[in-house]
Specification:
Elements lengths: L3 H36 L9 E6 L4 E5 L8 H24 L3 H27 L8 E5 L5 E4 L1 H18 L13
Antiparallel strand pairs: 1-2, 2-4, 3-4
Length: 179
């Protein structure tokens, strides 16, 4: 088709924009962790917890004490985590008109955010010291912990899948509710 090459170029530019967004958002996230570790003197992950489910590469836990902090700081961190997911979802929604490409945008933005988060933490804090260093991945619905290698491998897969989905051409909706 005559319009396909320029349309493909536009999709490739979209990939660059999503990567730029993810890298910048990853820095913001790592800066927050940097601040928390320096101001609140937090050590993560927790050392005392009950294992809910252990999948080897990720463990879902019930900590015996607060992971971030008690009171407002802990609640704010959990809400911030929800807001992070909302922002990533909103960017994906705005990046494409149809679901396959929106999913691709979400995977791409999330993966870039996560990969750059660990890269920025390494540059800012010298952490993690290795790919096997344990970390808290998420706080919701319960805390997830495991080696840093886990989210890195998952994010690389999400990045590749996200690029592939995002580069798909838009297919005209056959039903009104597909929009």
């Amino acid at each position: 088709m005559a319009g396909e090459p320029s349309s493909f170029r536009a999709r490739v530019r979209g990939v660059y924009v999503l990567v730029l967004f993810g890298a910048a958002f990853g820095f913001i996230e790592s800066a927050i962790v940097f601040d928390l570790r320096h101001v609140a003197h937090l050590t993560i992950p927790p050392t005392a917890y009950r294992v809910l489910v252990n999948l080897g590469f990720v463990t879902f836990i019930s900590p015996r004490g607060p992971i971030i902090a008690t009171g407002p700081l802990g609640r704010v961190e959990t809400i911030r985590e929800v807001c992070t997911l909302v922002i990533l979802g909103a960017v994906a929604w705005l990046a494409a008109r149809r679901w396959p490409r929106r999913l691709g945008a979400l995977l791409l933005a999330f993966a870039t955010w996560d990969l750059s988060y660990y890269l920025w933490l390494r540059l800012l804090l010298g952490w993690p010291s290795s790919l096997l260093t344990r970390d808290v991945f998420f706080l919701i619905p319960v805390p997830w912990i495991g080696p840093v290698l886990t989210p890195i491998l998952v994010s690389v897969g999400m990045f590749v899948g996200g690029v592939r989905l995002f580069l798909l051409p838009e297919i005209a909706a056959t039903r009104r509710d597909d929009r």
